From TrEMBL:
GO terms for molecular function: metal ion binding; nucleotide binding; nucleotidyltransferase activity. One of its GO terms (cellular component) is nucleus. Residues 62-243 form the Mab-21-like nucleotidyltransferase domain. Its main location: nucleus. Belongs to the mab-21 family. Gene3D superfamilies: 1.10.1410.40, 3.30.460.90. The gene is Mab21l2_0. GO terms for biological process: cornea development in camera-type eye. Keywords: Developmental protein, Magnesium, Metal-binding, Nucleotide-binding, Nucleotidyltransferase, Nucleus, Transferase. This is Putative nucleotidyltransferase MAB21L1. Monomer. Homodecamer; composed of 2 back to back homopentamers. The protein may exist as monomer in solution and oiligomerizes upon ligand binding. It comes from Polypterus senegalus (Senegal bichir).
Amino acid sequence: MIAAQAKLVYHLNKYYNEKCQSRKAAISKTIREVCKVVSDVLKEVEVQEPRFISSLNEMDNRYEGLEVISPTEFEVVLYLNQMGVFNFVDDGSLPGCAVLKLSDGRKRSMSLWVEFITASGYLSARKIRSRFQTLVAQAVDKCSYRDVVKMVADTSEVKLRIRDRYVVQITPAFKCTGIWPRSAAHWPLPHIPWPGPNRVAEVKAEGFNLLSKECYSLNGKQSSAESDAWVLQFAEAENRLLMGGCRKKCLSVLKTLRDRHLELPGQPLNNYHMKTLVSYECEKHPRESDWDESCLGDRLNGILLQLISCLQCRRCPHYFLPNLDLFQGKPHSALENAAKQTWRLAREILTNPKSLEKL
């Protein structure tokens, strides 16, 4: 048993050093190329409208606010200033979303975003995005990369297609630190010893973002009040959570397997599903020793089996907001197909670790 475990870990480490690292290197190269173009577009936007200041800065070889959705798809979060005069309200009526309401006694004119405040005093995510989309469309025509970048049509999101190869979504957002959403107040679960109190404090200090984008839970059926809502996102908190042990290595292997074998019709699975399942696996295996390098194979198998179970049940709850289903709106046939493919993959890795050389 121990010999089989060690063999699997050996082949997974080899896979990580070869396939995962080359994936990372290729994505880093793409990110540099893509960010040059996006920065140029955002510079033009800022000239037209100084309220939209580019926050796409490189720090320690990372771009703040950039998320990799797949090797050809990215999201850049553009942090806006001056949320101060608004109260953050998440009453759970829209899973995964919250609203920003003008604080009592504050005048609209005190806000930097005065013309985007609705009659009932809400700062409208949709109105801000709509204005931003117009500005980006104008900037694309003016910027020095205009030959290689164009707007993606037929969407209310702000998406750029670059060199006909990459798609980048630029999402206006507010960074919320020092508060934790009510809809995530149940976390951490009292009966689970992971993460420890220090890590919990660090995660909560990272806070969350409010994004101006289509809500998962609404899926096209938005009333105007709902489209004024902002989407909760916990990228930095989630990254902080997965520090230590072989957690990040495990996630890297899962992302690489997804890119190579689970990029399927109907796009049932993305990197975020993998990240979510690693977090749940940490709860199931709360001891640090469970994430020792020697346990990489066991953790990977556990996550792949959990993924199959989620695909068969057609439900993958968000880690911090379990009322939000990350499979919402995905075609059932695509989820079934992904379950079969994941099962083939898991069986192959478990019964013949050497097959990782070809995967």
